[in-house]
Amino acid sequence: MAMLGRNFSSEKYRYGFNGQERSDEIAGEGNHTTALFWEYDTRLGRRWNLDPKPNPSISSYATFANNPIWFSDPLGDTTNYSVQKGDNLTNIAKQHNVSLDRLKEYNPQIKDFNKIAVGQNINIPGAQNDQLMNGDFAAVVNAPNGAAGFGHNALMVGNDKAGWTFISKEGRQEGASATSGNNPLSGGPALPPKIANFGTLQDLYESNYYKEYTKAAVYTIGASQKQPLITKMTQEASSKYVLLTSNCGHACGTSIQTVGLDPGWGKSGPIRDRWGKVSEQWILSPLPNVQFEWQMKNNRSRLVGQINE
Q: How far apart are the C-alpha atoms of 253 and 248, rounded to whole Å?
């Protein structure tokens, strides 16, 4: 915030802190700047909108990785580091707690990684979350636009130190024609589950192949529960697929229930029976998006982080 009598600005120069364009008409002189991907309040050091490239280790409203002296972010979407004398890519990666491979992947504009120049800007990917480095976790990841807008859920198990296992129930093997044992109503054999490995939770959200996932809820689990949970989710992802009772959301819910988490029970709206009595009932919605939200509500005591792009 500008100090009275200790600042100077010219109407002919429209740029302010960190090269951002000033928007003095919004909150007063020097109090607001704008960029391609944000509106930024210089007094709070926070953006008005959610980060388009969220990092689970910090708030989606945070800017400059909470260090505006060290980093820059000219477009409002990616934290940049300016190369200092004596830097090389290896020590930059170590300094920001990211792998060398991730740093290289995030900087395709660098043609020769052995030749970086002082003052050159390096894009810094979301750093590994210290909170997710220690302990074991189950993360339900959600693609809200999947399945024609009803959503798709998958499960990740692990941590940012040892890595994560991703498992997804993929749908029904539809075949050429409906049969009594394989049709939309009664279900049928599931497609092979999608299984992948990631170094960090953030790696999933930076992968173009998994870009449909924009939400996550991360829960604590015990060390002894990690492998049994992976085994259970793999079994559920391979089991018969029934749209209303055994879909991707049910697979995640049934699996996390084995480690003491609620699968996503929620109250129905008021229901009037044939005698006129009105009541509410606990139901497990068949919609993955609804299951995801109710899981977060019902498991808040074990919720350690979430992503909501």
A: 9
Q: Do the Cβ atoms of 219 and 302 come closer than 8 Å?
A: yes
Q: How far is CA 172 from CA 162, 185, 233, 237, 242, in A?
A: 32, 11, 17, 11, 8
Hey, what long-range contacts does 251-258 have (CB within 8 A, 24 or more apart)?
Answer: 251/153, 251/155, 251/169, 252/140, 252/153, 252/154, 252/155, 252/288, 252/291, 253/284, 253/291, 253/295, 255/155, 255/229, 256/138, 256/140, 256/155, 256/219, 256/229, 256/295, 258/225, 258/228, 258/229, 258/232
241/221 Cα distance (integer angstroms): 27
In this prediction the pTM is 0.62
Give dist(CA 91, CA 88) in Å, integer: 6
Which residues does residue 219 pair with via DSSP β-bridges, in sequence order?
Answer: 138, 303
Residue 213 in contact with residue 154, Cβ under 8 Å? yes
Q: Give the span between the Cα atoms of 247 and 260, in whole angstroms.
A: 20
- φ/ψ of residue 157, rounded to 5: -130, 130
Q: Is 260 left (phi over 0), alpha (psi -120 to 50) or beta?
A: left
pLDDT tens string 183-205: 777 889 999 999 999 988 888 88
β-strands 152-159, 163-168: how paired? antiparallel
Predicted local confidence at residue 286, as pLDDT: 92
Using one digit for the tens of pLDDT, what is the confidence trace for 66-92?
777 667 676 666 677 888 888 998 888
CA distance linking residue 41 with residue 244, whole number of Å: 46
SS3 of residue 305 by DSSP: strand
Q: Does the structure show a pLDDT above 60 at 178?
A: no
CA dihedral 122, 17, 205, 229 (to 10 degrees): 110
Q: Exposed (0-12), middle (13-18) or buried (19+): which is 67, by Cβ within 10 Å?
A: exposed
Using DSSP, state whether 278 is helix, strand or coil. strand
Report the SS3 class of residue 72: strand
